[in-house]
Amino acid sequence: GDEPSGMGSGGSGSGSGQDNTVNGWTGVELLDDTSNPDRAVYHKGNDLVSGIYFESTDQGYVVTQGAGETFGRGGAVFTATSRAVTRVAFSGDNTGLGLSGSVDFTGLARTPTGYIAMAYANDVIASRDGGATFSIERNGNLVGIEPILGYRVTSSGTTLVRKTGVVDRATGAPSTNASYTDVWAPNGSPSIPAMVPADQCQDGPLGAGVPTVTSSVYIGADRNVIAYTANPEYDPEVCISTDGGLSFFPHSLAAPAEVDDFTPTGVTFTSATTGIAWFGAATAKPYIRRTTDGGTTWTTVAVPSEIASHMVELPAGFFAPDGMHGWLAGFDQTQGAAIVLATTDAGASWSVMPGVAAAVDAFGGDKLYTGFALDATHIWLGGARGLLMHN
């Protein structure tokens, strides 16, 4: 359909990849959107980078949320290489349809025909031409404007997770014609199912804090396995479905007593059997758990000793395609610096990645909120103050 002003090819700006490299990291500046000189949006140095996805070092996509000077102006979808942000592919500045106003993005999802820039439920911002263009349309019969925590689109249909604790399924791709069915909503009134069995999860996927990021939800490639973090009755847990969201069973993480009133930050799986769940917050000590039996049981993994007593936020968790190399990223409140933990053995052990804090400082950032690994040796990090950097 026709695209409102500010979409499609989007705006341009003077931003470009920085030539400076610090500790192996290259800083990449966002573009300001000057396509409308009377309403320029200064993404550079302001936006919160909330999602990154790269097909190769020369083809990538970045999404943001408005912050600083862009608070209330929305984020944007950018195209990028490993050294430069090249184009504003979609502007979130006052472009919502079902949502009246500006659009902030929570992440990116790969689809069979392109990408979805994840934002909120009742509109879909998507590319169906492999990332060449992005446009917005109403998202079928969905009516809510709550943020999206998870999306998985396959040739057989769509699964999405909304921050109000709802799991939806459709037989087709997200579009104006999509027909979604709420399959899981234990917090709803009435709940779905009408009587949630006592042995199943009593809370739906409600996210794990502000700003909204997508680490608290995992959807498997075939859409059958779905996992999310929850905390009913002061017992932090991972809820897991193996039937596409029709039922979810709780698995306790046996969290330390001092953090048992916090929802775990994130969960992800690297295979049908192996996964991690973790917690990190500004006012509490972190923990990491690991499963090797598909989430049935979770064992304690040691947090690196040098930060075990620190207050550490860890909103981002991601793995390389090999399932062995992974990273948890965020901000060490005790040290007042960005931090990344790294694993090379599928989450069985972790170490503090050196040189990250100095690079983040050099590029003008502070807190990290997202990351992406093309492979074991090419990773990106994004965060507050427009931070985007590649190693």
Number of helices: 1
Q: How are the strands of the biggest sheet laid out side by side?
A: 1-2-29-28-27
Quick check: average pLDDT?
A: 94
List unreliable stretches of 5+ residues.
1-18
**Rounded Rg:** 20 Å
Question: Care to count the β-strands?
Answer: 29
Classification by helices and strands: mainly beta
Task: Give the terminus-to-terminus CA distance.
Answer: 38 Å
Largest sheet: 5 strands, antiparallel
Helix content: under 10%
User: What order do the SSEs take from the amino end to the carboxyl end, as H and E?
Assistant: EEEEEEEEEEEEEEEEEEEEEEEEEEHEEE
Q: How much strand content do the residues show?
A: 35-45%
Instruction: Please state the overall shape, judged from the principal axes of the Cα atoms.
Output: globular
